[in-house]
Amino acid sequence: GSGAGGGTAASGGGKPVVGVDYPRSDTDFWNSFIKYVPQFGAENGLELKTSNSQNDISKLTANVQSLISQGVKGVVLAPQDTAAVAPTLQQLNTKKIPVVMVDTRPEQGDAYMVVRADNRAYGEKACKFLGEKLSGKGKVVMLQGDLASINGRDRTEAFNTCMKASYPGITVFGEATNWDGAVASQKFQTQLTANPDIKGVYMQSSFALSGTLQVLQQRGLLVPPDDPKHVFVISNDGIPQELKEIAAGNIDATVSQPADQYAKYALHYTKAAIDGKTFKPGPTDHDSTIIQVRPGLLEDQLSAPLVTADGATYAGVASVKPGDSSLWGNNLGG
Amino acid sequence: MPERTLTPATENAAPERERPRIRLARLRDFALIPAIIAIAVVGQIVNPIFLQGDNLINILQTMSEISLLVLAQTIVLVAGKMDLSLESTFGLAPGVAAWLTVTAGSGAGLGLLPGAWSIPITLAAGALVGVVNALLIVRFGLNGFIVTLGMLIVLRGLLTGISGGQTFFNLPASMLYLGSALWLGVPASIWLCLLLFAAGIVLLGFTKYGRALYAIGGNVDAAKAAGIRTDRVLWTALVGASVLAALGGLLMSGHLASVAAAQGDGAIFTVFAAAVIGGVGLNGGKGTMFGAFTGILLLYMIQNVLTLAGVPAQWIQALNGGIIIVALMLSRLTGGKVQE
Amino acid sequence: MPERTLTPATENAAPERERPRIRLARLRDFALIPAIIAIAVVGQIVNPIFLQGDNLINILQTMSEISLLVLAQTIVLVAGKMDLSLESTFGLAPGVAAWLTVTAGSGAGLGLLPGAWSIPITLAAGALVGVVNALLIVRFGLNGFIVTLGMLIVLRGLLTGISGGQTFFNLPASMLYLGSALWLGVPASIWLCLLLFAAGIVLLGFTKYGRALYAIGGNVDAAKAAGIRTDRVLWTALVGASVLAALGGLLMSGHLASVAAAQGDGAIFTVFAAAVIGGVGLNGGKGTMFGAFTGILLLYMIQNVLTLAGVPAQWIQALNGGIIIVALMLSRLTGGKVQE
Amino acid sequence: MTPLVEAVGVTKRYGETVALDRAGIRVMTGQTHALVGRNGAGKSTLVSILTGLQAPDEGEVRFGGEPAPRLADRNAWRQRVACVYQKSTIIPELTVAENLYLHRHDLNRFGLIRWGLLRRKAAELLATWSVDVDVRLPAGELDVEQRQFVEIARALSFGARFIILDEPTAQLDAAAIARLFARIRTLQEQGVTFLFISHHLQETYEICDTVTVFRDARHILTTTVADLPHAELVAAMAGEAAGLAETSSRTAVPSGGGVVLGVRGLTYGDAYREIDFQIRDGEIVGLAGAAGSGRTELAETVAGLRAADAGTIEVAGRVPRPGSVPDALAAGVGFVPRDRHHQGFVPMMSIADNATMTVPDQLGEAGLISGRRRDRLARNLIANLAIKTPGPGLPVMGLSGGNQQKVVMARALASDPRLLVLITPTAGVDVKSKEFLLGKVEETAAKGTGVLIASDELDDLRLCDRLLVMFQGRVVAEMAAGWHDHDVVAAMEGVRLDA
Ligand SMILES: Nc1ncnc2c1ncn2[C@@H]1O[C@H](COP(=O)(O)OP(=O)(O)OP(=O)(O)O)[C@@H](O)[C@H]1O
Ligand SMILES: Nc1ncnc2c1ncn2[C@@H]1O[C@H](COP(=O)(O)OP(=O)(O)OP(=O)(O)O)[C@@H](O)[C@H]1O
Ligand SMILES: [Mg+2]
Ligand SMILES: [Mg+2]
What we know:
The complex is a heterotetramer, with one copy of chain A, two copies of chain B and one copy of chain D.
Chain A: E1 17-22, H1 28-43, E2 47-52, H2 57-69, E3 74-77, H3 86-94, E4 99-102, E5 111-117, H4 119-133, E6 138-143, H5 150-166, E7 170-175, H6 181-194, E8 198-203, H7 209-218, E9 232-237, H8 240-248, E10 253-256, H9 259-274, E11 282-283, E12 289-294, E13 297-302, E14 306-308, E15 319-320
Parallel strand pairs in A: 1-2, 1-3, 3-4, 4-5, 5-13, 6-7, 6-8, 8-9, 9-10, 14-15
Antiparallel strand pairs in A: 10-14, 11-12, 12-13
Helix pairs in contact in A: 1-9, 4-5, 6-7
Chain B: H1 2-6, H2 14-29, H3 33-46, H4 53-78, H5 86-101, H6 118-139, H7 144-163, H8 173-180, E1 182-183, E2 186-187, H9 188-206, H10 208-218, H11 220-225, H12 230-256, H13 267-277, H14 289-308, H15 313-335
Antiparallel strand pairs in B: 1-2
Chain D: E1 5-14, E2 17-27, E3 32-37, H1 43-50, E4 58-63, E5 66-67, H2 74-80, E6 82-84, H3 96-100, H4 115-128, H5 144-156, E7 162-166, H6 174-189, E8 193-197, H7 201-207, E9 210-215, E10 218-224, H8 230-238, E11 259-268, E12 272-280, E13 284-289, H9 295-303, E14 310-315, H10 325-331, E15 333-336, H11 340-344, H12 351-355, H13 371-385, H14 401-413, E16 419-423, H15 431-446, E17 450-455, H16 458-461, E18 466-471, E19 474-480, H17 485-492
């Protein structure tokens, strides 16, 4: 956070004041994001006002009001509800305060830039990895997030679509888990009891990581990949623990969400907006592409690397090894 | 005992002597005022934005929607019942309206009815929930806490079911109006909230119906023996509370221009905290509408101050809870009575 | 009146006529058994896996951790109080242990103490929470519902604070043991859960302490008059409940080999639903430990059947709630009394 | 000689109410000591201090010259004194057996409770009191009288040498009182000391040897019962020279008056069958009967609390919907229910709110309530019934038992009823207030209101113009004013009279 202090110093010769609303502080991923924000704020010469909407869109609305009252010149939002943010965007637009959105794309309304990785791509990458590993047949469990979460739904849909299209021989059991590790473990255990021949698991977030491993261990299924009893597990997020487990051979892969990049480019684009710069669709200088989602809405689609033990390519998806120094999960120390 | 400090030392004539006690009973309504003032002072010190009109309107607007749940819950609590399902009605009622009126193309809507129907549908859905609650609680004599806990889960599940977990947007204009319009430069939802609370104060404090609620909450058998139609009063209280919750949900949907499948999720904790800090008893027959209002106001002021203070996100919750407990102890000191 | 339907139509002599009522009173303990059997039959039809030992163990294991919260809450409820903060203690207690013992490199741990300390720390943290609760409720006479609601928020906030919202991994072996070991081929947590419930049944039904809890919950003045040291009993009940919650949290952490910042979040709804469906009264003095056990068992059986049945995710919740309400109505029919 | 128990200079305040003002009492070993005083005199407050439930604000309590134990040391208190409190200490959810042996369960060698033994002991204990209930029933299912016996049996079974009975007889009928007194006499012979509180002064003369009078929170006098004639006792309680006024002989009701209550063929389950009677304007009719005779159910049916299985009720020419209190109220029925705690008042609400609960329409237009009008009405009622309170705003729970009963009476009278239905209207009310309440009833009757009094207390029934005696659900006798007590008692007990 920025600490308390003179919130009235909005104008004047000081650094431009920028508001950042964190979406939540109870997941490893967003906590990493929260950790990175002050660092990149300083790098971009911005004074930050922060708030936290605790995964509640009405809190976000109120927080943005407070930020406006404090005279911010730009706002970074990461609403977990992409529809309900529309009135807030509209209000910011009328006040001519540029908005950079992180992780989610608004259903309606304009933003200066959306910085996100493609959640559909996560699901697709997971599908391709499992599809190749299982040679296109068998049973897999997908531990979904919350049905009410757009990111979760995108991953689910992409995973299912890809499985149907490319690997029709694979049966998918989808389980909603409310992003809750205990629920995930319980449902996985039940499915494993009903279908002992399950060979793959797609966890849509790292919350289910250790519970899933415990279930596998309890059933003696936590064995190296060359053992026929092995169950292939792919996770999502790229927190340090996942990388460690991949290196140890306990899980097989993860899709690394770029938490550092989220923070870096969110503040980069905010600074650019305050400086009056504009962007056009096309490739960027940081290995990503800006696309125009609709008029008035640009989106910088950061790459989210697939991490596997061997760093091979799966059905055209390249991957990196867990020790790769470009992964945010390996750079948390600083 | 606070009475002593308030009573003048001189001995008064008998009819005079009742004054201080009554003044005190009234004072109990204002038990939270010191806490509210304290928070305001702290807020102003922490960030001079705090007392600006803009920020105050922000606080009031943010609390306006949930405050209708507090209002509804207070009515139910005074009558000696509880309605946990209000938080789900808050989401489901506008959700049903959106489902039926939003054009099929966008999101999960069916688009069966024109947009003008949305407000009547919202209120009707609320009323229907209230009728089911009342049927189970009043008619069949099931335990209110557990019935409404079950209903909380069912109704939330229904909203998830009809929306497929998605958020309804592109709502019809009539649904947006109340939650987003400005009247005299102030959001309509603030006017509505203040108006409804004023009505609530009159209802509980100065009407037959209100006295009947207190009587039922205090001793239902005595109320019955005194000729109060207890079942009828409970029916209207439960149905009315659900309709108020639906109205609150409507404001919220208008404010956010959408209905999320999680709308209202977890709000019941805040609602109970507000009512109880505000002096409303959980066993019925105790508390006032004004007290409940100060309760929810205090909670939202705390939230606002914490945000303005830029407290690190991970500590906000702990602080929030701590302040609630302190407020409770303060109101105990002011109120002077052991609570329940 | 259900008595009438159960009594044979013939007129009995007066002393005979009371029998069915008494038999019925004992039956009330078993009110959920029909519902449990019904669910079992449905489950078996839906998926023949259901009654296999593996799946039954699965059900028991998944409920074992939360069931300790139910056990704790039942003790507190019988004594006429409520402890909402149990769900946060469930997360915080092992969280504190992990914080202090997990080596600093991984995640948020401080690594101040060797791993062997983790179990004593967990239990001590639980006891400490209980002491704070008891202090505020028993000593200062604050309302239990709202104190523990505040504590729920504070403790959850503390866990978020110390963990920075992250999950603790790489727990010491002693923390993992109870939640993951097998005894005689059956998870240790199941043994523990069954043992503790058996102890709970004896405690509430056959000890002076247990009967004192009922007396306090039924009429605290009468209990005092009968020579029960009500304050002391309430202290031990509240502290004991928190320690049980900490133990439950320990099992959960061992089972998941981690402590998430959200561990236990929202569990209190399930806990209340289980206790109340199981016949435990919210106003104190009513219910048995066996009933509470059947309550939580029923809830987890429903969950399991719904998962096995492959019900579409968005409808699971609605169905779950619907079944709870039906179970409630069933237990009303069996129990025969208007509930509170 | 040191007194067995002594309270000296005890003061106790509740907010502004001074419940005890430097009051005291000395009870000598072996005495049966009566404590009398009007409602609100502070008797029950003294009891709670003598039994260690509350600490006095000032003053002290001594047992055999030793200072009293700490409040927390409940066991020490229980060894010194056993008590039947005025307020029920029965725990309704627990079984009768457990209530009797609460916190004194027999344990086996594992420290577990021996339920079977406990039940047998409980059954034996109740048998000695001729109370015929199954000890496995939840105590909440007992009727008031049975519950009172459970309390009495419990207090007397401790083997304590000092026993306090706070209005134990208020809920009992004559036969039950006789049983209680027989038991007290046995214990007296064994040297047990009693402190006995009752508003039935004749009971004081019957079993007590010493009497202490409290008035307005103060100790007034202590003397031997034999030295204090009835009139002087009442004078000491009331603080007036005048004793009890002679009951005015009622003038006969004009036979020409209309019928205010007509009951025809009324039947209700097992409680009563085929009841027919009428009450004319201004007539006071008594409904006598022992517990379980059906008198209470019958009166409650007339008041609309119960719906009869068959038969009709007509009130002042209207037939209210059976089982509807509001309808009965609208037809002109005023009602004092049997158990004031259960149905009489809402404890947390003010006297004003309680007293005007039946007449919300008189308090303002359009569903609104004018606080001023309500308080004015309430002040009238308070003055009318001489309720001892600092004002109409006091919650009823802060009143003494007798004054609470007056509030219930006020509630019944507030609607200017055509028919007043009273069930044991003077339970727990002191003699002066009783006289007063009954005087009010007569006054009301004189204005043309019909009155039905269901009670087994002959004192309540004395002012009736006519008495219907019920036995096992039927009216077995009808007596005109001037009946003899023993005839009524005989009829209530089912002895056939050839009148
Ligand atoms: N808990 C209380 N709170 C406030 N006032 C009380 C309380 N208990 C008793 N009082 C007041 O103290 C006074 C004495 O009451 P107490 O119950 O001792 O009278 P009592 O002599 O037992 O009367 P009764 O014959 O009606 O039982 C009364 O004026 C009563 O209003
Ligand atoms: N008063 C009571 N309150 C609660 N539970 C009771 C009570 N009395 C008995 N029970 C329950 O009834 C069941 C039977 O108790 P128990 O075995 O002691 O009785 P019993 O076998 O009939 O008597 P005995 O000791 O003479 O053999 C137990 O489960 C006990 O919990
Ligand atoms: Mg008394
Ligand atoms: Mg036995």
